From TrEMBL:
Residues 1-24 form the signal peptide. PANTHER family: EXPORTED PROTEIN, PROTEIN U-RELATED. Keywords: Capsid protein, Signal, Virion. The keyword Signal applies. It comes from the Bacteria. It holds the Pfam family SCPU. The keyword Acetylation does not apply. This is Spore coat U domain-containing protein. InterPro entries: Spore_coat_component (IPR053167), Spore_coat_U/FanG (IPR007893). Residues 27-163 form the Spore coat protein U/FanG domain.
Amino acid sequence: MTIHRNYLFGFMAATLVWSNSLFAQTTDTFDVTITIEDSCELTTPATDMGFGTVQLLNTNYTATSTVSVTCTTDAAYDLALDDGANASATTRRMTDDGTNFVSYRLYSDAAYTTLWGDDTTFGSVNAGTGVGIEQDITVYGRVETGDNATTPPAGAYSDTVTVSVTF
């Protein structure tokens, strides 16, 4: 019985040593990092601003466009609108073929009180703060009777305005 007990004790000790070495482990750590810089981009393409089909420019006509910008959270940004492709010294203009024009203005507010431009002509930039997801910003347009002394010939009039974001 003593012999069997010694063998049994030896077997158990060997099993314990073997199982401890089987489950032994060491550990280490590593860091996971990312650096986020202030960033902004114009995301979804801006929507076109259509004033519709009209007959006479004897009343104000309004329309809107939407510009989408995505910036990192808390990033300050400025949205600027250029003069358009057909501007005169004092107003943005749509043209039919380069000889006839319809003047219009762009605003950053629905009350049509704050002209929107690029801080050099036609108004100031529209300042904002990023929220980390896409923000839709409305551009308010108005064809004003005071800017159009006469109604030009019938035709399709257009202009192209470039929007830019700086941060």
